[in-house]
Amino acid sequence: MNESASLSELLINFLQVQLFEAINLHDQMVVSQLHETLRCMKKLKADSRLVLFTALETDYNRREPYITYLVRCRQSLLATLSFLDKQIQRIDSFKGNCKYYFTSLCVKLFLEQYQDDVREFVNNFQNTSLTDEKNELLEHFLDQLYERISQHPIWQTANDEQLEDAYNAAERSIMSEIYIYAFYPHRDADLHRDLVFHQHIERLLEFITEDHEALQIPKIYRSLAPWPAAQEELASINAYKAPQDKLRCIQRCCSNIMDLLKIANEASVPGADDLVPVLVFVMIKANPPSLLSTIEYINGFYKNRISGEEQYCWMQFSAAVEFLKTLA
């Protein structure tokens, strides 16, 4: 009799706990069901409750193999969903690459019709000395190209996104034509300045580590050094010629660092004071050529269009370069 009473009390208590949880969750259907279950349970004698409890236990044991089967099925379904998600990501990536190639090909065919205009623009750009005048000349020529693209038969049925892709492809193509003149406006002087700064960073590489007191990298983040993924992003910056592509490379580098810092310290959100010291260290390890020319190139031909996260990353990157100049 004591065992029956004890089991009955446990069962009643369990149902009451479930009832309180349902009330807190405002689940009215479950609240109604539990109230009715408790009402029926209280009408039963202790022995009858024991019989009910034993029947529930027997039913659960009988269903256990099926529950195990359901768990295995769910795990299999989750694995299948994960596989399908990756396949969708691959398809989206392939789709994006195809769209980029097709757009670039259309723009190439379009620009072939205006070779003389492009050649004349390149000559004018080359013969212009001031950066502001170069930028004004570039913007004027790109505006003309955008107008022609929007009126061209190839893009007659294009939507806004497709037109924007065409504009970006046209800009990349034009920037590749004037890259040397825009990136090194003073030619040998710029090359010499970049070489001197590159050699300065090489000397820093001989003694600067993540523990160096000048960097002041918080100890909690030092175990993640040397941040190879961020180094790879930064090392590839000169593979891009358009200023916006160089800036996105910098943004990916900063985002990679921030993601790792968040993993290292989940208790707080890393800020600029955490990012810049690590970014300086990554710059020293990667040491991409023409770093100073990259700064002037983006400032000269893209600064007015920087906003949002790009602007934040650009500010931290510029601050890191300035700090590098002071290290000795």
Automatic annotation (TrEMBL):
Give the membrane topology: Peripheral membrane protein
One Gene Ontology term, aspect cellular component: membrane
The main place the protein resides is membrane
| Keywords for this protein | Endocytosis, GTPase activation, Guanine-nucleotide releasing factor, Membrane
Q: Which residues form the VPS9 domain?
A: 191-328
Keyword Membrane among UniProt keywords = yes
Is the keyword Chloroplast in the record? no
Q: Name one GO biological process term.
A: endocytosis
Q: Name one Pfam family in it.
A: VPS9
An MF annotation (GO) of this entry: small GTPase binding
Matches recorded under PROSITE patterns = VPS9
> Localized where?
Membrane
Q: Which family does it belong to?
A: Belongs to the GAPVD1 family.
Protein name per UniProt: VPS9 domain-containing protein
